[in-house]
Structures are given as structure tokens and as C-alpha cells.
Amino acid sequence: MRILNILTIIILIVLLVSTVFFITLHSLAALIGIATGIAFVYYLLFFIILKVISAKKLHHKNVQIILWIFFLAPVIWALIHPEGLFEVLMFDIKLDMK
Fold it and tell me: Which end of the chain, N or C, is less packed with Cβ atoms under 10 Å?
């Protein structure tokens, strides 16, 4: 759980910095800032849930597996198909990277 907590904090910091950076560009890159902001909110909620589970001492193996799945799902999706992840986060904007 400690490794998951540290990785979540690192991702939160990176997403916060990148969101602020992209939104301050005032160009088409600000759309990427919105998508990273949504990802930031996802990992912030994940971090809060992780803290609640840690406070209640629910360190069962099944809980840890489920937490790792929720942690790694967006990361793996972004590595496999980044355009698909962007279209889910920004469903009104169709971005074609071909």
C-alpha cells in the first residue's frame, strides 16, 4: 500500500503541473489541459479512497489487487491507445492522430 500511495502522489503532482501548464498556454493545447485535469480529479479521488482504506486498516490481498487495477487502468490505456483515452475524456472533440 505504501508503494501505491507514493506512486499516486507522484502522478498527482505531475498531472497538476501539466494541467496548469497546458491551461496557461491559451491555445489548442489547453484542450489537453482539460483532459489532464480530469485525470487529476480521477487520481485525487483514488488517493482519497486509498487514505480511507488505509485508515480503516483494510489491507486484504483482494482489496490491494482491486486498488492496483484501478490505479493502472488509465496508465495502461494511455500506453496502448492514447487517442482512445483522450476521446473518452474529451467526448465532444474528435482528435484524429493519423
Answer: C
Among candidates 95, 93, 72, which has minimal Cα distance to 83? 95
Q: What is the mean pLDDT of residues 59-73?
A: 91
| Beta carbons within 10 angstroms of residue 43's beta carbon | 23
Report how far apart, in Å, the C-alpha atoms of 21 and of each of 34, 41, 90 are.
11, 16, 18
Contacts of 97 (CB under 8 A, 6+ apart): 82, 83
Mean pLDDT of the 41-45 span: 96
Residue with cell 482512445: 84
pTM strictly above 0.70:
yes
Helix (H, G, I), strand (E, B) or coil at 91: coil
Cα distance between residue 13 and residue 10, in whole Å: 5
* Measured distance CA(40)–CA(72) in Å, rounded: 14
Q: Is 24 helix (H, G, I), strand (E, B) or coil?
A: coil
Q: Of 46, 88, 52, which Cα lies nearest the Cα of 70?
A: 46
